[in-house]
Amino acid sequence: MTNQTIENKNQIARTNLTNLLKEDHKKIKSLFAEYEELQEKKGSNDKKAKIVQQICTELTLHTLAEETIVYSVASVVIDDEDLMDEADVEYAGAKELIAELQAMSPDESYYHAKVTVLKEYIEHHVREEKKRYFPN
Fold first, then answer.
1. Where are the domains of the chain?
2. Do residues 8 and 68 lie in contact, with contact meaning Cβ atoms separated by under 8 Å?
3. Region of residue 42 (left: phi > 0; alpha: psi -120 to 50; beta: else)
4. For 1-57, how does the pLDDT look when each residue is reduced to its tens digit (9 = 90+)?
5. Which residue in 31, 79, 90, 118 could disulfide with 97, CB within 3.0 to 4.6 Å?
C-alpha cells in the first residue's frame, strides 16, 4: 500500500468520524429541545424521564467515542495542555450530572435544573469542538 493510499484512507476515516460526531451533536440537541418542549407544556414525567434517559445514553456513548478515539489522538497532535485539561473538566462535570440524573426522577428537586445545566455544558462543549477541532 502506498503512502498516498494510506493517507487517503486516514482522511476518509477522519471525515467519517467527524461526520458521526456532528450527527451525534444534532441528535443530542434535538433531544434537549424535545425535553424543553415537554417541560414548557407541562408534559408527563414519564416522557421527560424517557427523553432524559435517551440524552444520558447518547452522551455516554458520544463521550466514550470522543475520549477513546478523538482525544487520545488530539492529545498527541494538539500541543495545548490547557485545552485538553479543559475538555477533561467538561467531561467530568457532564458525567457527574448524567449519573445524578440517571438516579433521579423528574419530580425531584433540581431535576430540571440539572438537565438545563447539562444542556449548557454540552452546548459549550460543542461550540468549543467546532471552533478548535472541527473548524469547517
1. 3-132
2. no
3. left
4. 665 554 554 455 555 777 888 898 999 999 999 999 999 999 999 999 999 999 999
5. 118
Task: Identify the three-state secondary structure at position 43.
Answer: coil
Cell of 57: 445514553
Sequence-separated (6 or more) residues with CB below 8 Å from residue 2: none
C-alpha cell at 7: 493517507
Q: CB of 136 within 8 A of CB of 87?
A: no
C-alpha cell at 24: 451525534
CB atoms within 10 A of CB 56: 21
Q: What is the pTM of this model?
A: 0.81
Cβ(70)–Cβ(133) below 8 Å: yes
CB burial of residue 27 (10 Å; 0-12, 13-18, 19+): middle
Q: Quote the cell numbers at residue 79.
A: 500541543
